[in-house]
Amino acid sequence: MDLLDLTSRSYEHCKLLRETTEAVEAEVTELRGTLSDEVADLSKQVRCVNNAIKNLKTDLLDAVKNEVQKFIATKKERQYVDLTLESDGGNGKPVRCARASARSVGGKLKVPAFPDITKPKKKTTKCRAGPFTVGIHVSPEDSMLVDYVFCTGKEGGDEKIAMIICTFLTREDILTLAPNSPLSTLILDTVVEKLTWADRDKTKRECAFLPVTFAAKASGNRDDLRSFISLEHVKTLYCTDIRDCEAIFIPIYMGNHFVLCVVNLKKQQYCLWDSLPSCMEKTEINQKLVDIMAALDVLFFDDGAAWFHDVSSFLAFEYNPTNDAPRQPNTWDCGMFVINWMKCGRSLNKKTAKCMGKRFNSEDERLKLVLELIDCTPNEKTALLDRARELVA
Fold first, then answer.
1. How many structural domains does the chain have?
2. Based on the domain organization, do 219 and 346 belong to the same domain?
3. Contact by Cβ (8 Å): 263, 319
4. Whether 88 and 208 share a structural domain
5. Are 335 and 260 in contact (CB under 8 A)?
6. Is residue 284 part of a domain?
7. Quick check: 174 and 190 in contact, CB under 8 A?
8. What residues form DSSP beta bridges with 264?
9. Which of 62, 86, 312, 341 has its CA 20 to 30 A from that of 364?
């Protein structure tokens, strides 16, 4: 009797437990449906907000364009030369003339030949944008940005102006791109990061780029170099998928002068590109190059990994001196030359470098680089443009 009673009770408990489980499952199903509906509603609201933001941006851009067109139209009107009407003294017909140059001949008014002054003057090839006088087209929006970044009355040298992935540039950094100014090393490190991410988007990486700070650490203690490589995530940021790379570009800053070390992985050679060779001691730069080769061994082979097909040590590479680098026309554009050489990538050679040297215009190149850096992050550029408009207003 006790056994039957125990069995009956166990059955009741199991039945109750099953009913409870079914009820819980039903509630869970209902909650899932409710959450799914709420998520769908939230997604719909987010889309609506995004569309509203997009429309607002379009309206703002249209408003700016209209204001710019009005401003340009006003300037054109001011360029017209005021004309006066004079009577010829005979038939009373008005004669269009410039008062200062008209003269009377034989009782009649005679106007000397001159171009149609009712047409606005042709624009000059040069234009102004902030501190730059350039021969390239600059949109009104870009001109406003440049004015804001370089305006002399604006305080806040630590204001963030541009950002790539891990590096951001303040106004103080960007100001080193002003005409006749030596570049900050952070400008070159930012360009290196930009070129690295652009190259990583390709199906097959052609070149690798290392920051100026890597070359600076190359001559120090090996433990300090390893610590730098680890803390700054050099391998992750700059050395991903470079097994098939053809060249490594390493900008160097020594004695207030920038030069470029190019390592050819296929030929197992390295060379130096220097736009002002007389600026540094030969023995000093040669030792720096050897230190960099040793630092590359630490970077790539310390962990025993096979980074490249046929390379076992960079110290075994042959130094191939080059005298093909074009000369900079001043004492402050070495950084710009190094940046332009890095942009060439694997196509950098005597011919391309010579061509670039002939076409080089310091202010044009500097302004283009400023706009490229500002364009890197659209959100940052939009915020910067908003601050520029507030300043103008």
1. 2
2. yes
3. no
4. no
5. no
6. yes
7. no
8. 247, 269
9. 62
Q: Which domain holds residue 113?
A: 79-122
* Structure confidence at residue 200 (pLDDT): 77
| Residue 252 exposed, middle or buried by CB count within 10 Å (0-12, 13-18, 19+) | buried
Please tell me the predicted confidence (pLDDT) of residue 92. 46
The helix/strand count (H/E) of the chain reads as 12, 13
- Per-residue confidence (pLDDT) for residue 102, from 0 to 100: 44
How much is the pLDDT for 4? 66
Pair 328, 217 in one domain:
yes
Contact 366, 373 (CB under 8 A): no
Cα separation, 229 vs 128, whole angstroms: 43
* Chain-centroid distance, C-alpha 197: 11
Do residues 165 and 201 touch, judged by C-beta distance below 8 A?
no
User: By the 8 A CB rule, do 295 and 214 touch?
Assistant: yes
Judgement on whether residues 113 and 208 belong to the same structural domain of the protein: no
Neighbours of 366 (CB within 10 A): 24
Residue 99 lies in a domain: yes
Does residue 41 fall inside a structural domain?
no
Q: How far is CA 298 from CA 148, 150, 222, in A?
A: 44, 41, 8
Q: Can you give the CATH number for the domain in which 283 is found?
A: 3.40.395.10
Q: Are residues 235 and 347 in the same domain?
A: yes
Is residue 210 within 8 A of residue 262, CB to CB? The reply is no
Q: Are residues 203 and 341 in the same domain?
A: yes
Whole-prediction pTM = 0.66
Q: What is the pLDDT of residues 141-186, one digit of tens each?
A: 899 889 888 875 556 678 888 877 778 888 899 999 999 999 999 9
Q: Are 218 and 320 members of one domain?
A: yes
Q: Where are the alpha helices (DSSP H) in 107-239?
A: 140-150, 171-174, 185-200, 212-218, 222-231, 234-238
Residues of the chain with pLDDT under 50: 79-105, 108-112, 114-118, 121, 124
Per-residue confidence (pLDDT) for residue 6, from 0 to 100: 67
The pLDDT assigned to 98 comes to 40
Residue 138 resides in a domain:
no
Are 108 and 189 within one domain?
Answer: no
